[in-house]
Write a structure and sequence with these properties.
With 157 residues, this protein is of the alpha+beta class. The chain has a single domain, classed as 3-Layer(aba) Sandwich (Aminopeptidase), CATH 3.40.630.30. 27% of the residues lie in helices and 32% in strands. Strands 1-2-3-4-5-6-8-7 form an eight-stranded mixed sheet, sandwiched between helices. The protein is globular, with a radius of gyration of 15 Å.
């Protein structure tokens, strides 16, 4: 899938050095390399990389399947390239690959208004909070669910 200056493809083990670089700059409590290796090794997951014209990773997404529900576990873009449609395209591709009729869940920091707004555009809705979910500062996580397709899925970029 192409979107302007980037392409989305399956995430590969060879992408992990670039993924780790983005991860460390994007999150105060980054995933470990082992966590990424574990998720990529699961055949049922959807693990995607957004790459630029030189095949450099500019964003990535990890979504795991648990029984009948998909859990969006990690999504990040190169900090300097945020708000360029990368996350939106990764989410669109995830839903296309995992199924438009599937159920999805995720957790997001309650202070992350931009991410919450993006998820809402894809039909995710708040379903409560996980108190003190984030270890770095004890912030709550909003639990969001997407239980049915909506007319705005994958809309405007």
């Amino acid at each position: 899938m192409s979107q302007g200056a980037f392409t989305v493809r399956p995430l590969a083990y060879g992408d992990l050095p670039q993924v780790m670089s983005i991860e460390r700059r994007a999150f105060s409590t980054p995933w470990s390399l082992a966590m990424f290796v574990l998720e990529i090794s699961k055949p049922s997951g959807v693990c995607l990389a957004a790459t630029d014209a030189l095949d450099r990773v500019v964003g990535y997404l990890i979504c795991a399947r648990y029984d009948t529900v998909w859990h969006l576990m990690n999504i990040a873009t190169e900090p300097d390239l945020r708000r360029h449609g990368i996350a939106r395209t990764l989410l669109t591709e995830m839903i296309w690959r995992a199924g438009t009729e599937s159920e999805y869940t995720l957790e997001v920091r309650t202070s992350n208004a931009a991410a919450i707004a993006l998820y809402q555009q894809f039909g995710f809705r708040s379903a409560g909070t996980r108190p003190r979910y984030y270890r770095d500062n004890g912030e709550d996580a909003m639990i969001m669910w997407r239980t049915a397709p909506t007319a705005t899925t994958g809309a405007a970029g």
